[in-house]
Amino acid sequence: MRAWAIFKKELRVYFSSPIAYAVLTIFALISGWFFYNVFGFYVMASMQAAMNPMMARDMSIVEGVLRPLFQNMSVIMLLMMPILTMRLFSEEKKSGTIELLLTYPVRDGEVLLGKYLAALAVFAAMLALTLAYPLIMAWVTLLEAGPLATGYLGLLLQGAAFIAIGILISSLTENQIVAAVATFGTLLIFWVIAWASDSAGGSLGRVLSHVSLTEHFDSFSKGVIDTKDLIYYLNLTILALFLTLRSLDSKRWRG
Amino acid sequence: MIEVDRLTKRYGPVPAIQDVSFTVEKGQIVGFLGPNGAGKTTTMRILSCFMPASGGTARVAGYDVFEQSLEVRRRIGYLPENVPLYADMTVGAYLDFVANIKGIGRSERRRRVGEVLERCQIPDVRERLIGRLSKGYRQRVGLAQALIADPDVLILDEPTIGLDPKQIVGIRQLIKSLAGAHTVILSTHILPEVSMVCEAVIIINRGRVVASGPLDRLMQELSPTARVQVQVEGPPELVAQSLRALPGVQRVESRGAADGASTFVLEAERTRDVRREIAQLAAQQRWGLLELKALDLSLEDVFIRIVAGEEHEETMADEAAGSTEEVAS
Asked: I need a labelling partner for A59 at 20 to 30 A (CA). Which of A6, A154, B14, B45 fits?
């Protein structure tokens, strides 16, 4: 109930400042550019394949278009999400509005939930814009719903985890730039951490590859829902949100 | 309504407030007075549940600010010192949000927002962005958000700062009108404000309460005599003599003469007003009575006396400590 009030207020602030528009527009532009190129390449390849039956066997819209498109979109998310989350607590701390917010009769958890869901809603709007691409594809070719749905589920789960990490870091600093840079850095480390898994080898290598964001996204983009990946994203999200709650709470006893 | 018991707050080793104790009765308006850095804001932040105390307890409306913070927060309206508001929201949307978070139902909210804007004299800015408002308007929007849920207790940190004189009068009237139904604790630098608005005062200096109580009692304690200034046309010697002879007058001091009129300052017992007798005396003697006014101890005087008295005592204590040390060595 009170989380709903926070949610509405956060959405209002997102859309009355240029942040949401900027993020939505840039995300749509860049992902559109990727789609244009990936799909264009696929169209060229399929025209060649029409003359070469050997090649036609390997043509797959999932492998050829959806998978690279989802991979690219998750890279753009890596860049855009810190912008979306950086202001959530930092701005309140900097402008002092947190003083009023925390003296309203609302639990920290409700504040957090409202803010988190508002960022998630803006992110969902970002994803909704990209639904134009599968629509265009469906118009010219036969598209399977399954891999499409798992791809979007993967993006959504990944976005949920990104926002949770971003909101945690935003609760730790009052400087929005610092929040954005630190979030970006953290996400990037999670992204590339698996690169060391081969050289590390053994159980450490397995741990590193399991911690990595990329490894877990891959199966979704191929059209597979693996509970291992599902649990990974949910764990990461819940852990980050729990730590945010601790960070907010610490204000009350640390003073 | 507000009970504060030996409240202490330390930032690192430095205490911002130490052993602050006071109580505020229901329906009272209490002024919280002190120089900059005395600990007013710290105390108010603890009362509003924004930060915890390092020691001692504070109860608002019977609930502990630390243990039952949510219950306390349901019953207070708080206006922080620098009035932090969301610059990207309109006044109407912001107040609607505050009303919502304070649990006021949808249908009720619109009415409450209009009402509170009216009370704070800012119905014209409902659709304006808060970030574009002047300081005076922002201040009143801050007051509006504190009032919106009709809270039992209002905690106002310098509510009239940044307002123009006309607005100050309006806001003071507004605060005065809250007495009875609401308990108000407000901090201020402006001393006359306290005598105008508040029934009781808590004076704080360097983190400690140095005096508290009803305003008139405080004045009485600090200066048991009342002072009266008279300007009379008449033979100075005779006037001074006759004034001294009036019942209740303890001291007469000449403040010089000009154009045949001489000015005196009398000190008399506070319990009796000697002005009536002075007027009668002048009439009997056919002296021209040009001026007759009570010189009440101003709050500035009270404040300076208390704060200076404190410092005086402290230096004495320091010196005493120094001398014992010398003896010991």
From this structure: A154
B114-168, pLDDT tens digit by residue?
999 998 888 899 999 999 998 888 999 999 999 999 899 999 998 888 788 888 8
Instruction: Give the pTM.
Output: 0.84
Map residue B320 onto helix, strand or coil: helix
ipTM over 0.90: no
Collapse the DSSP code of B232 into the 3-class scheme (helix H, G, I; strand E, B; otherwise coil) and give the result: strand
**Residue B86 touches chain A, beta carbons under 8 Å:** yes
User: Distance from CA of residue A151 to its chain's centroid?
Assistant: 12
Q: Quick one: average pLDDT of B189-216?
A: 83
Q: In chain B, which residue's Cα lies nearest the Cα of A18?
A: B88
The Cα–Cα gap between A169 and A83 comes to: 12
Pairwise CA distance, residues A92 & A179, whole Å: 13
The pair of three-digit structure tokens given for residue B8, joined into one six-digit string: 């202490």
The pLDDT of residue A138 is: 86
Q: List A residues 72-101 in contact with B (Cβ-Cβ < 8 A).
A: 95-100
Domains detected in chain B: 2-220 (3.40.50.300), 224-295 (3.30.70.3190)
| Token pair for B222 | 């600090």
The three-class DSSP label of residue B18 is strand
**What residue spans define the domains of chain A?**
2-254
Is residue B39 within 8 A of residue B207, CB to CB? The reply is yes
Taking the CA atoms of A184, A185, A190 and A191 in sequence, report the sign of the dihedral they define.
positive
